[in-house]
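Researcher: We are triaging several targets before committing to wet-lab work. For this one, the compound of interest is flavin mononucleotide. I'm pasting the protein sequence and the ligand SMILES. What I need is the predicted three-dimensional arrangement of the protein with the ligand bound, expressed as structure tokens, so it can go straight into our comparison scripts without reformatting.
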Amino acid sequence: MLQNKNILIGITGGIAAYKVCELIRLFKKNGANVKVTATKNALEFVTKLTLETLSQEPVYLEQFSIEEKKPEHISLCDWADVFVIAPASANTIGKIANGVCDNLLTSLACAFQKQIFIAPAMNTGMYNNFAVQKNIEILENNGIKIIEPETGFLACGTNGKGRLAEVSEIYSVVESYFEKKQFLKNKKVVVTAGGTKENIDPVRYIGNYSSGKMGTAIADAAAIAGAEVVLIKTFDIDRNYKTVDVKSAQDMFEAVKKEFVDSDVLIMVAAVADYRPETVQDLKIKKENNDSFTIKLVKNPDILSEMCKIKKTNQQVIGFCAESNNLIEYAKEKIKRKNCDYIIANDISKKETGFASNYNEVFVIDKHLNMTKIEKDTKENIAMKIMELLYGKNN
Ligand SMILES: Cc1cc2nc3c(=O)[nH]c(=O)nc-3n(C[C@H](O)[C@H](O)[C@H](O)COP(=O)(O)O)c2cc1C
């Protein structure tokens, strides 16, 4: 279940820090990739050398070192599928619950948009303290999974609640999270993303503002859900699933036809140009020779419609509909005209949820024109909510 999953472990300054060495080993043994971030105080309890040897990665400590071209708290967020903070001290719990970001671990927790697990461990007095209890409640109410401490004999000599949950328990909570998420296991999902580029001459093209963020988020969500993913894209991005690079609508059409044959689901998120220049000039068009010129455009293939025409009963085709006005009306008309299984409609006129934004707000419309609104959220969260709504276990 954990094969190739990227697990970020956060260690704070508690006596139970040594137990997390065993957790790292367990995750690694079961195929996960592990990176560790630790607070300065955590290293009073367990050495950097031990953590680096076990994880086979550098331990991330510094907020202000930029080794992977992006600030560490952003690149690690991109990399990790889940963030497991164990042991979580009363101090760090308080900071995360209140949005304090004064070290790499707390900045990561603030920026992280996927699942965070927190395993508190502390003396019973600290655990029962009103502020700690209130902070844990805040974390739980905001989607963080708390792996409760156990009752027993504590390192400080007292007997009570506060001992770090067993390493095997932390492991199985994380494992069952991934298990539940595997609702697309054994399915092949093809996703298109980005805006196509239609050449005019060797240096110019007709394009659009699509950033490819929503399509990438959909492909990532399908991969997290266990699907075999193929992302057909018009921009540079590295992923650990199959990607196919295309430029024009026609290239994309060819790539989609090839990948669709043995797929279960096609999700067309790309902004495909409706038209392309009828002829592409071999040489750069020179302004010296032309005061004006006309480009004749011809229609591109409608990839979504074409795939809907050939889809078999066991295949689904999902279209995206980006409109700047009359969103729902156009979306409903589109699903009927194109005969796709679902249309995801989003309003690109809204600045905060438009093309290049990290946020979106969508309406999922099915064949019978039933509509579900997914409220404004990050594109990653919207993508996961769409996949859960359409293919999650409860469906
Ligand atoms: C020997 C020792 C053991 C400690 N154990 C814990 C603990 O289990 N849980 C906890 O919340 N704090 C514990 N503390 C206190 C934390 O180390 C302290 O609050 C620190 O500021 C936490 O920093 P951090 O959250 O940045 O790692 C311990 C301190 C010492 C000296």
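Researcher: Any quick observations?
Model: The chain is about 35% helix and 25% strand.
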